[in-house]
């Protein structure tokens, strides 16, 4: 057992550190997660195998590899009050990673979960690539290092207790934060926190708890922040009490990314009640006031002349033609029978319920920023450059976020808040109006996916998919990781979008020769990696084609998938949803089941959906809402290898199902004349209660691995695809345009000038 | 500036602010009561749902001058006190079902749920799926199914 820093030195033995500190602080290097990808399972039956690059390396491996050379440590601190502290270098935005992280520490340190305090680390430049929350990578990448640090703390505490109690370490037990010897004498770990501390940094080998002995990991646990959430005590960025940080909003252009040419009435707006400052910034005109309500009034009163934006004059149909021109060929027509189709996916918004927002306090020689940031290092570097300050003078606090879905990979609001604070010389609390968030915020790019599959008899000979998309902006740090590592990968000289695409997609079926390519066009839109990025669209297209192939071969969709899936683990989730969901049960005309499969993040998932497309359901009345077909039942099975917190995993899958339903049926942005028509949650039809399946079951499969895979985004693709497949079977027509209701505009668009709607005054009339 | 007097979470408050400032901003920006969240500002997303004299309202759409001195505003922070407990039964149901994900919408969801259950109880009937379908609060994390389960459980203990 030899090894350099943080290296794995045995089956479960690792090296970590005890750090010089007044109280016990133990640490491990980031990048300890195992890297070996599982080898592809042997092909089943007589089907043609589809070797795939993701058998060798996938996106999670690459992000973990990228972290290896970093020297930054993550540390666990035992406090004198018996609590244990850990600053997680990731963003909690609802996905439950503070809870799962606390569980890892509780497991290795044998302390009750409620003694573990997980906070979010400020931006740490020394972590280089390793403070990015994305790609469903958090648990995968932190699983081993956090446990190593906690296990070393446990060992140090036992050593200190042995001295304190005069017992051999082997005679001690550590349980629920208390160490007891054979005679029954005991000492709390808090009382040992100083004694176990070190005056110098030391490297220490440690053995981790075997999976068979886990008592915390793998058991369902409620969120550690649940009480704060239900009592209103949980603090988001706009709830922080930063002295003199006054509400600020920005008057934005009527078209995407338009900028200010001139303002006719700056003085008039500055004199409005409550308004303290009005300044022109790079993205519009900022209004700072005593209340956000007065910011709304100020923004609406501004008379601004605008320069054109980056999508001037463009509408859905123009972008569709751009995509057509960027399409890559599918190859020569096959002499064999083929199934072929083209699918269209319109722009979708990735707004969280908490809008883009940040607090900034910029002084002449320093700056302090508070925001929910999934790429805080890139944010810090960019903020420093924009403000003309050295990065060491810029402190970036990562605040827990009110949802992300990819949006918080970007730091648009932090940049604006810093710019405004610098210009007015005072702290600001900057928030986007919902209309801003919808019209000028990040979107999932419009895309098309063309698929051709050839077959003969009961064999699929080839599967080819060409995905064409408006460019996805990866300029938030993930792009840097990819740039830095792409050269080492067996993918040739391709750009990082294509690399991301190749590494996040996989061919799960034995479909013979399989190819997939991404082509991008038009960088004029504010896009981003919306939850599950390319996979929902790519998988939806593939699974619809799978249903077509099944029909050609005279097999039912479940049986066909089962025959062609590549391994037992995949078949197990498919079998589970078919069994629990009673696949093939008799259903009335106009209703149907759909089934779909998706693998990513070293996990596999399957969804069985029942949908009701009968007119009486589709046309059920809801005020200012889109009803449409109702998903009446969902059965979802998931195998992430090792589920750290099965309850958290269930919650993630439920959210993914809500997303999948919305993507297939109701939610999209309509581009007209250079702007998105949607400016409200009653325009952008994310799943609501009236779209929610009344019957929903999520099955977490027994662990199939020593290591956790990713989960945060995993469920979107199979859910969207299963809804689409069910819709196709219920209506008898395969859907090819998503969401299915995009062709019908279900609301009256709000004006673009002023850019945000007035605050209503009739609240009392709606009391109920 | 005009003064406005009303009650918030059991206490009389007086604020010095323009008549047309909406109650949401009086609560959040002046009184520092941050449980009610901003999600749209136009009474659509319902993230700010609170109670006015025990019925659900959205403070983003109420000018502060609409309030009378005897009006009782209850935000999520004041909900437990309305039943004289550490937690309202609906909050406990939320914990039991581990409803929250990011938690941003949940104060509004709970306040809307309590008002819904009271209304249905006043009508002398049990909550139906159609009642739950009528809730308009957005949850972008998609916790809707757990919200439905928690409301049914919370209603049994109210």
TrEMBL record, chain A:
Q: Where is the composition biased (Pro residues)?
A: 751-760
- One example GO MF annotation: isoquinoline 1-oxidoreductase activity
Q: Where is this region: Disordered?
A: 743-768
By its UniProt entry, which Pfam families does this protein fall under? Answer: MoCoBD_1, MoCoBD_2
Q: Which PROSITE patterns match?
A: TAT
For this protein, the record's SUPFAM superfamilies field holds: Molybdenum cofactor-binding domain
SMART domains linked to this entry: Ald_Xan_dh_C (SM01008)
Lineage, top-rank taxon, reads Bacteria
- Enzyme Commission number: 1.3.99.16
Q: Which UniProt keywords apply?
A: Oxidoreductase
Protein name per Swiss-Prot or TrEMBL? Isoquinoline 1-oxidoreductase beta subunit
Q: Tell me the organism's taxonomic lineage.
A: Bacteria, Bacillati, Actinomycetota, Actinomycetes, Pseudonocardiales
UniProtKB/TrEMBL annotation, chain B:
Q: Which UniProt keywords apply?
A: 2Fe-2S, Iron, Iron-sulfur, Metal-binding, Oxidoreductase
Q: Name one GO molecular function term.
A: 2 iron, 2 sulfur cluster binding
Q: In what residue span(s) does the 2Fe-2S ferredoxin-type domain sit?
A: 7-60
Q: Which residues cross the membrane?
A: none
The UniProt entry, under Pfam families, shows: Fer2, Fer2_2
- What Enzyme Commission number(s) does the record list for this chain? 1.3.99.16
Ranges where the [2Fe-2S]-binding domain occurs: 75-152
- Fetch the InterPro entries from UniProt: 2Fe-2S-bd (IPR002888), 2Fe-2S-bd_dom_sf (IPR036884), 2Fe-2S_ferredoxin-like_sf (IPR036010), 2Fe-2S_ferredoxin-type (IPR001041), Beta-grasp_dom_sf (IPR012675), Diverse_Oxidoreductases (IPR051452)
Protein name in the entry: Isoquinoline 1-oxidoreductase alpha subunit
Q: Native species of this protein?
A: Actinophytocola algeriensis
